[in-house]
Amino acid sequence: MAVFQLSVHVRPGDERQVIAAGQHALSSVGEDADHKHIAVIYADVAQGQFQIGDIPTGITYARRALESAQRTESTWGLQHLGTVEKTLAAHKDPAARELLGDLISTRRTLGSSPA
């Protein structure tokens, strides 16, 4: 349920709600839970940060999402990063370009197509 709330707050781009819902969603994932969900949560938080214009924080969370998807071999997490990938493509920031390259490389390695 916490992940759904995060998705709802990401769309309108309410910074306070995105941060609070993201933290709540992350804390709701227990130690024994399927950690593949973490990549999706980080991707949603990243997208919310991009929507409100906080590019550096968005990149940080997108990097965490990518690392989590790689560690858990989560194609679902990678597919969820498709929106982030499209957002990064519009930015000229070197960190955004580097992350975009890493996303594309990982997608090729794991054989997943963008969502």
Automatic annotation (TrEMBL):
Can you tell which superkingdom this protein's organism belongs to? Bacteria
Protein name, UniProt field: Uncharacterized protein
